[in-house]
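pasting for the record
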Amino acid sequence: RTTSIHTERYELFTRNGERWVRFTIKGTKTSREYEKKVVRMVRIRRAGTAVQQRPIVEMGICIGGYYKLAKVNLTQRHRMLYKLLIGRLYMDKAILIDSSRTFVGKPDCPDAPR
């Protein structure tokens, strides 16, 4: 259901009495540091592991010309093939997936804020 993105680590801090998080997203050629307000914290429970607390932030995501704000949880996905997992809530009624094809859309979103 939810969108997850890989970050090696994050740092929670308080700004003006609100909870914020600082984290870095590394791309293939560059990396970028973000500071985002925490929307909420979620508890993730997986079989055989301890409960994890993850911050949820709001980020804009562009896929094949479609831009939308999404609630994204920050986690370590270093063992996963893809560093970004797009949730169903982001794609709902907007994106159709053809699992037989890969890398078909260009990240060109004219509606995205610059």
